[in-house]
Specification:
By secondary structure, this protein is mainly α. It has 19 helices and six strands. The chain has a two-stranded antiparallel ribbon with strand order 1-2. The chain has a two-stranded parallel sheet with strand order 3-4. A two-stranded antiparallel sheet has the order 5-6. The protein binds arginine (ARG).
Length: about 475
């Protein structure tokens, strides 16, 4: 059989065409076509470099670049005919270029391989995605700081073990999430540095015999550095694993956050109101309004954790250098990007619209003996050892449970049954406002401190 019936890109040594199922099974064009812009940018940089070092003439370079830009326009107009016979995004674009400009198009692949080409494309794609994701984190953080500002004085119960612990401010709670997102943001920027390194020039695995200038290609593509070992450059996907692990931590944060929103919207808590546009109803129970957005985000975290495991397993047994296994890196990576972006976007849209029912959150803190620690601290300041104070207050709480009275609702005489040294000023610390205001130090829940943090965040987030 003539090689015409085999793949035109690598069919030279083949005696029969590839089996139709195998062709479909091994093709990646269905999912790697989304890297078309990065593939074309990489090819333009490669051709520019080849002309600089004299491997292509300037005329050839210009013809190739014009042709590639035409291909790009065709793709973006939705008129590109993606072909499984051309296997992947790289060969689809290169073949189309040759169809368009003739045999000069066949010179583009000089001094490179799909192995360094695909590694370059993924790094460019991920670098762009990280920039979009970090911007979305910033948008969410701004929204949270806005809610914190609105609710800097709003009292709610703080929980440990999901039991009422001490009163906190709603603003303080929102800033806790802002802090977590900040670490996620930092981790992404750090991952971006290691992603932003140029593999091109490694060719198939060992480098190439042409006098290439990799530093020049790197500068054209905005890479901060060049991968220093050709075997490493074409084979490792640790940057994708690192990204997916950072994404997993971020999704873990969003999942915890989701869990709180789900609890808070329930009839039992009733702490917040989520506008209808972020919820859906039930087809059978007319009274239902479900917090679908946070529920879905909580569920989607599992899918991202799964992608991390898939990528680690994909790499763990591979000898150097490139293996076809690596084609399996794209779907988990792309789905991680999509899932993360979707989840962040949903949160960034939703959080500024959350309404806090401060009467209810305040009442929940009041009912839960949330100022018990404040009473103990008051007694300690009067000279009672902390352990004894703890015991006295414990008894007062037991009395409160039995008589359905909060500490602030007891008379001084009632409190003195358990804490004989208490004076009338004890009621200052038993109020919820007094309790939060007293935690007035760096990192504390006092509205004062929350406002100081908000000013710090506004500065950080302004650029
Ligand atoms: N589609 C391939 C991938 O995603 C491109 C590289 C293929 N290289 C090769 N020698 N088969 O990894």
């Amino acid at each position: 059989m003539s090689s015409a019936a085999t793949n035109m890109m690598w069919g030279g040594r083949f005696e029969e065409a590839v089996d139709a199922f195998v062709q479909a099974f091994t093709a990646s064009v269905a999912f790697d076509q989304r890297m078309y812009a990065q593939d074309i940018a990489g090819s333009i940089a490669h051709a520019t470099m080849l002309a600089k070092v004299g491997v292509l003439t300037d005329v050839e370079r210009d013809l190739i670049i014009t042709g590639l830009n035409q291909v790009k326009a065709t793709i973006e107009a939705g008129n590109f005919n993606w072909s499984i016979a051309r296997e992947d995004v790289h060969m689809n674009i290169e073949s189309e270029l040759t169809d368009a400009i003739g045999y000069i198009g066949k010179k583009l692949h000089t001094g490179r391989s799909r192995n360094d080409q695909v590694a370059t494309d993924i790094r460019l794609y991920l670098r762009d995605a990280i920039d979009v994701i970090t911007a979305e984190i910033r948008r969410l953080q701004k929204g949270l700081v806005g809610v914190a500002e609105r609710e800097a004085d709003s009292i709610m119960p703080g929980f440990t073990h999901l039991q009422t612990a001490q009163p906190i401010t709603f603003g303080h709670h929102m800033l806790a999430w802002t802090e977590m997102l900040e670490r996620d943001h930092e981790r992404l920027l750090d991952c971006r540095k290691r992603t932003n390194s140029l593999p091109l020039g490694a060719a198939a695995l060992a480098g190439t015999t042409y006098p290439i200038d990799r530093e020049y290609t790197a500068s054209l593509l905005g890479f901060e550095r060049v991968c220093q070992n050709s075997l490493d450059a074409v084979s490792d996907r640790d940057f994708a694993i690192e990204f997916t692990s950072v994404a997993s931590i971020l999704m873990m944060h969003l999942s915890r956050f989701s869990e709180e929103l789900i609890l808070w919207t329930s009839a039992q808590f009733h702490f917040i109101h989520l506008p209808d546009r972020f919820c859906t109803g039930s087809s059978i129970m007319p009274q239902k309004k479900n917090p679908d957005v946070p529920e879905l985000v909580r569920g989607k975290s599992g899918r991202v954790f799964g992608h991390l495991m898939a990528l680690l397993t994909l790499m763990k047994g591979q000898p150097l250098a490139y293996n076809k296994d690596n084609q399996e890196d794209k779907e988990p990576l792309f789905d991680t990007i999509d899932t993360l972006l979707g989840s962040l976007r949903a949160f960034a849209d939703m959080m500024p619209a959350v309404q806090v029912r401060k009467d209810i959150t305040r009442e929940a803190a009041r009912r839960g003996f949330a100022t018990a620690t404040d009473l103990a601290d008051y007694l300690v300041k009067q000279g009672t050892p902390f352990r004894d104070a703890h015991e006295m207050v414990g008894k007062a709480v037991a009395y409160g449970v039995a008589s359905a009275k909060d500490l602030a609702e007891m008379t001084l005489e009632e409190i003195r049954q358990f804490a004989p040294n208490a004076n009338s000023d004890v009621f200052d610390v038993l109020t919820l406002e007094g309790s939060v205001a007293a935690r007035d130090h760096l990192g504390g829940t006092a509205p004062n401190q929350v406002r100081a943090q908000i000013r710090r965040w506004q500065k950080i987030l302004q650029h």
